[in-house]
From TrEMBL:
GO MF assignments: peptide chain release factor N(5)-glutamine methyltransferase activity
Database matches in Gene3D superfamilies: DNA helicase RuvA subunit, C-terminal domain, Vaccinia Virus protein VP39
Catalytic activity: L-glutaminyl-[peptide chain release factor] + S-adenosyl-L-methionine = N(5)-methyl-L-glutaminyl-[peptide chain release factor] + S-adenosyl-L-homocysteine + H(+)
Annotated protein name in UniProt: Release factor glutamine methyltransferase
Positions of S-adenosyl-L-methionine binding: G118, T119, G120, S121, G122, D141, W170, N184
Family: Belongs to the protein N5-glutamine methyltransferase family. PrmC subfamily.
Role played: Methylates the class 1 translation termination release factors RF1/PrfA and RF2/PrfB on the glutamine residue of the universally conserved GGQ motif.
Length: 278
């Protein structure tokens, strides 16, 4: 007798729960939607349908990967972030919901040009450009493979004509000045890496840690920001929730004013912003 989609979903969720995957029922449902091509929204109405040939095997393979704690986005190849779906690979950091706080805060400011340092998948830069049709931006990254992913995402969102990508170690290859500089740099201290969720072991290490105290990237960004901001331009960075005071001090020490720390939806420090002198 053919197995139903409901049977696959129940068995898959049980395997993920046994593996300690947080949100196992949700992940099992998303993986089932992925392998069947049925949207997650419509899947509930199809639970009584028999699984077509190949679906069970494909779903079990996907569940095995997720049970090994491979990120969901690496299995499906996509991630929802802010208002768009982005392609992601093991070459880029998986965009997190908390990073949307940086996007929302940036869209509260007036700007027409933006630089995204360490752009990765391009999620921050491209979300900003998609929301502000008159703006142009540059995304830089040390990883050529990450830049290839970002270029593809720019084309998918239809903003490739307004987005430039370049390989650079922070500001090293960046020219010109911008109204806004944004970044979600590696901020995890080396000493904290061993305690991270297993999923992070699949993501590029250089996007997670500076190999030291977690503040190295902020020192480089703050030191070069004023030379790449127009008068009155803004610098905005995502931070780890305990880094607010340290990063705010780095911005102030670099000559930026109006320094503020913004919380995420859980009330934890998440974004630090400062302004170049007018």
């Amino acid at each position: 007798m053919s197995r139903r989609l409901a049977d696959l979903l129940r068995e898959g969720a049980a395997r993920l729960e046994a593996a300690g995957v947080e949100g196992a029922p949700r992940d099992a449902r998303l993986l089932l939607a992925h392998v069947t091509g049925i949207s997650a929204a419509r899947l509930g109405a199809e639970m009584g349908a028999p699984a077509e040939a190949g679906w069970a095997e494909a779903f079990e393979a996907a569940i095995t990967r997720r049970a090994a704690r491979e990120p969901l986005s690496h299995i499906t190849g996509k991630r929802l972030f802010y208002e768009h779906e982005f392609r992601v690979t093991p070459d880029v950091l998986d965009p997190r919901p908390e990073t949307e706080c940086l996007v929302r805060a940036a869209l509260d400011l007036p700007w027409r040009s933006v630089l995204d340092l360490g752009t990765g998948s391009g999620a921050i830069l491209l979300s900003l450009l998609a929301a502000r049709r008159e703006a142009r931006g540059v995304g830089s990254d040390l990883s050529g493979a990450a830049l290839d992913v970002a270029r593809g995402n720019a084309a998918r969102l239809g903003v490739e004509d307004r987005a430039e990508f370049l390989q650079s170690d922070w500001f090293a290859s960046v020219g010109g000045r911008f109204d806004l500089i944004v970044s979600n740099p590696p901020y995890i201290a080396e000493a904290e890496m061993g305690a991270l969720a297993p999923e992070l072991g699949y993501e590029p290490r250089m996007a997670l840690t500076d190999g030291a105290c977690g503040l190295g990237a902020y020192r480089a960004i703050c030191a070069g920001a004023r030379a790449h901001l127009v008068p009155g331009g803004w610098l905005m960075v995502e931070i780890g929730w305990r880094q607010g005071a340290d990063v705010a001090a780095l911005m102030a020490g670099a000559g930026l004013g109006s320094v503020r720390i913004l919380p995420d939806l859980d009330g934890r420090d998440r974004v630090v912003m400062g302004r170049a002198p007018a």
